[in-house]
Design goal:
alpha/beta, 3 domains, 5-stranded parallel sheet, binds 1-deoxy-D-xylulose-5-phosphate, Rossmann fold, 7-stranded mixed sheet, 591 residues, binds magnesium ion, binds thiamine diphosphate, globular
């Protein structure tokens, strides 16, 4: 016999049979369930805890999956997953072969739209709502749940602008907890704060100006109130916004008090909520911290330096500069397109702009990179964090396309530091002044050097480095993946080892053609190794360089033509043939 309410629920149909007065108890159980699993398996915590009541209310009131529920970003959808058939497998969340940490269409019919990147929910739900209308499905409801930080993004504004002139069954739930990963920023955030303090005056809200039926703000943790409001809105036609106020991390004291850390806290004690004691062992720094600390160092000497992040001050460590030089460091919110063009604008006025964007999120600003930066040769310094395979965030977040999508653009430099020192030195070199924009891409996590803070050295643009000499097979690598290649060589017998060389290309653009000509004359086989898509990436560039002059065999190792799922970085590198063991096996084939 089930001893709690959550045990009686597999799908929302079960939930809808539960008397409403028992729902607060269910909310408590759902919170505990999420906390217990995330405490050991890790993942996003605060956002899901904040929408427990909303999640229950939505599936209670609406007839999901016939009524369509779209989560924005999806990092807050753990409760949704648990109530829609995935309770028993929730412990596999974000692990290789397990369920995704984000809603995913292939995983469940309740996951109506795949997400991970923010601010898409209104557009997607509007598309579905207009499609329903065209199909004559008059009664179907379409609900988009969007956070206060995500609704401030350009895409969300574009969707609101369109939705406001339609007559669709679209309900936007604005989940306002006044924080993204870091505290929300901008004029809209200030407006929401005013509305919370003074209430929304009738016909005076931004949303009403855009032709939405606006209600709220209401307490998003009062489940009866939320249910009553959703029931009412079900019968209101046209586009609607319900503004709810919630607390990120609700129900776990530490998560409420330290919302930035508990956004995705890693492992913690499920009973006390405490994080494990800090590991005091000396270890190499995270690349992001090398970026953040080096930028402060450079900015202390060079007052023209500006730092820009779209909504990731903590994740990028731009926060260090924001704390020390607040006038020269900008968090522009979830606005990658704006971040790129804003950087370009400042750079035209003689400032030295470091624009830090996660590789995966730069995808959103592709036209800005081409049209606003490269076409005009504006020397913005882009630092692309989380490049390569990122691990458990999975397919939506791997930074594996940047090399391919950047290399085809004229007028830019692409550099991949293989360690912390190289990251420092290229930042130093770039701020002295380049003629072109530069894209510096580095991975999630730690580097390889304990003693990383050395005096700066200039890097010669377009130069590769020989890491190991050989005479038969060359491992041609780009950036930190060279460490896997070097380990692979070390797995060989001493006599085999002598035959294998390793060169870190460092620059994908411009290529070190002088050295490449020497290498292609010397080696029989070149194995390219990259932490990015093999299609159009470094390997492709090398094939283009070599053809038709050299008959050298070229084997390309990299991510094949698929979207890699979630798993640890090591598991995924192994799966895609770029771990040291996998590279070793490939070398053996060609030896
Ligand atoms: C395009 C894009 N940029 C940045 C991110 C990183 N990111 C994930 S969640 C998040 C904050 C979302 O805040 P909000 O919408 O308020 O939701 P909450 O976490 O408060 O529920 C950010 C910036 C992203 N997922 N997508
Ligand atoms: C949901 C989302 O997009 C972010 O929370 C992302 O997971 C952050 O990644 P990092 O943990 O690498 O900063
Ligand atoms: Mg928020």
């Amino acid at each position: 016999m089930p001893n709690n309410i959550l045990d009686t629920i597999t799908f929302p149909d079960d939930l809808r049979k539960i008397p409403q007065k028992k729902l607060p108890q269910l909310a408590k159980e759902l919170r505990e369930f999420i906390i217990n699993i995330v405490a050991t398996k890790e993942g996003h915590l605060g956002a899901s805890l904040g929408v427990v009541e909303l999640t229950i209310a939505l599936h209670y009131v609406f007839n999901t999956p016939d009524d369509i529920l779209v989560w924005d970003v999806g990092h807050q959808a753990y409760g949704h997953k648990i109530l829609t058939g995935r309770k028993e497998i929730f412990h596999t969340n974000r692990q290789l072969g397990g369920i995704s940490g984000f809603p995913k269409r292939a995983e469940s019919i309740y996951d109506t739209f795949g997400v991970g990147h923010s601010s898409t929910a209104i557009s997607a739900a509007l598309g579905m709502a207009i499609a329903s209308k065209l199909k004559g499905e008059k009664d179907r409801q379409h609900i988009a749940v969007v956070g206060d930080a995500s609704i401030a993004s350009g895409m969300a504004f574009e969707a609101l602008n369109h939705a406001g002139v339609t007559d669709t069954n679209l309900l936007i739930i604005l989940n306002d907890n006044a924080i993204g990963i870091d505290p929300s920023v901008g004029a809209l955030k200030n407006y929401f704060t005013k509305v919370k303090l003074n209430g929304a005056k009738e016909a005076d809200t931004i949303f009403e100006a855009l032709n939405f039926n606006y209600s709220g703000p209401i307490d998003g943790h009062n489940i009866d109130l939320v249910i009553a409001e959703l029931e009412r809105l079900k019968n209101v036609s046209g586009p609607k916004v319900l503004h709810i106020i919630t607390t990120k991390g609700k129900g776990l004291r530490q998560a409420e008090e330290n919302q930035v850390v508990y956004h995705a806290p890693g492992k913690f004690d499920a009973l006390t909520g405490n994080l494990p004691p800090k590991n005091n062992q000396l270890q190499p720094p995270k690349f992001q911290d090398v970026f953040g600390k080096t930028l402060v160092e450079l900015a202390s000497e060079n007052e023209k330096i500006i730092g820009i992040t779209p909504a990731m001050p903590t994740g990028s460590s731009l926060k260090f500069m924001m704390d020390i030089f607040p006038q020269r460091a900008f968090d522009v919110g979830i606005a990658e397109q704006h971040a790129v063009t804003f950087s370009a604008g400042m750079a035209t006025q003689g400032f030295t702009v470091f624009c830090n964007i996660y590789s995966t999120f730069l995808q959103r600003a592709y036209d800005q990179v081409i049209h606003d930066v490269c076409l005009q040769k504006i020397p913005v310094i882009f630092c692309l964090d989380r490049a390569g395979i990122v691990g458990e965030d999975g397919a939506t977040h791997h930074g594996i396309f940047d090399l391919a999508y950047l290399n085809c653009i004229p007028n830019l430099i692409i550099f991949v530091p293989r360690n912390e020192t190289e990251l420092r030195n290229i930042m130093f070199t770039a701020q002295l002044g380049l003629d072109l924009p530069i894209f510096i891409r580095y991975p999630r996590g730690r580097g390889s050097i304990l003693d990383w803070k050395k005096p700066f050295n200039l890097i010669n643009i377009g130069t590769a480095e020989i890491l190991k000499e050989g005479n038969k097979i060359l491992l041609l690598t780009l950036g930190p993946v060279c460490h896997n290649a070097l380990k692979a060589i070390n797995l060989l017998s001493p006599s085999q080892r002598k035959r294998v060389g390793c060169v870190d290309l460092r620059f994908l653009k411009p290529l070190d053609e002088t050295l490449l000509h020497e290498l292609f004359q010397k080696y029989e086989t070149v194995i390219t190794v990259e932490d990015g898509t093999a299609v159009g990436g470094m390997g492709s560039a090398i094939v283009s360089f070599a053809s038709p002059h050299y008959k050298t065999t070229i084997k390309m190792l990299g991510i094949p033509d698929v979207f890699p799922e979630h798993g640890t970085v090591e598991e995924l590198q192994s799966k895609f043939g770029i771990s040291s063991e996998a590279i070793y096996k490939t070398i053996k084939i060609y030896l």
